[in-house]
Design goal:
This protein is of the alpha+beta class and 230 residues long. The protein has 7 helices and 4 strands; from the N terminus they run E-H-E-E-E-H-H-H-H-H-H.
């Protein structure tokens, strides 16, 4: 496994690291991410930020992992044409709010993880039953994995939108439309990243509670969407 070029701990003051080793494009992504990363520090999320020097086509420009009880936000920018295509596909006046929403999405994964809620549903929620004598258990496991991943992705999308509603309210509809475009192409309905049921709800920004942070705001809409995802 290669060693990342850049690992920064969000502790004390600003991000400290081998920032001089970043390419201009990587530094640009970091700058655009600044407001959301500052919020993560304010919320005391156990977050490390890593830039992968060996990124390749097909890698998500942003992803979240979990190591030793800490969240690992990975930027896969260098050598990754998908990262360039992502930025090129964002209208210039939406660059700041969309990248912030992307980072907030990843922070939503971290928030769920550190609270021990990863791949869980609220107490009292009745799960659909894949049981029965003639069940194809391999297919049932795949459906369960898709369902659990889809729910986490939906929550994270809603965090990104809740962030936008607070920090870029005038551009909420445009950022929401961007999320809808990204999620429109699914291999099958209900796939791992098919968050469209929740995005339809989020088309009404009034569903987000007005008194809460983005993690709590997203949770309210997410729980509502659980009842109608299928």
């Amino acid at each position: 496994m290669h060693r990342p070029l850049f690992i920064a701990l969000l502790v004390g003051g600003a991000v400290t690291s081998r920032a001089a080793d970043l390419t201009p494009t990587e530094a640009g992504w970091l700058k655009l991410s600044g407001p959301a990363l500052a919020y993560a520090k304010q919320q005391r999320l156990p977050l490390d930020v890593t830039f992968d020097p060996h990124a390749k086509s097909g890698d998500a420009p942003l992803s979240m992992g979990f190591v030793g009880g800490r969240c690992q936000l990975v930027f896969a920018i260098r050598g990754n044409p998908d990262a360039d295509a992502t930025l090129a596909g964002i209208e210039p006046d939406l660059l700041n709010p969309v990248v912030e929403a992307m980072v907030a999405h990843e922070l939503g994964h971290c928030w769920r993880f550190v609270r021990g809620a990863w791949r869980t549903v609220p107490a009292g929620f009745v799960e659909s039953n894949d049981g029965g004598r003639d069940v194809d258990w391999s297919a049932a496991r795949l459906r369960r994995d898709m369902r659990e991943t889809r729910r986490e992705e939906a929550y994270a999308d809603l965090v990104g939108l809740a962030w936008t509603l607070t920090h870029h309210p005038a551009q909420y509809d445009q950022v929401h439309a961007w999320f809808c475009r990204v999620r429109a192409d699914q291999p099958v309905p209900g796939a791992h990243h098919d968050t469209r049921a929740w995005l339809r709800l989020a088309g009404d920004s009034l569903l987000f509670p007005s008194i809460a942070g983005p993690f709590e705001q997203a949770l309210a809409v997410w729980q509502r969407g659980l009842r109608s995802e299928d």
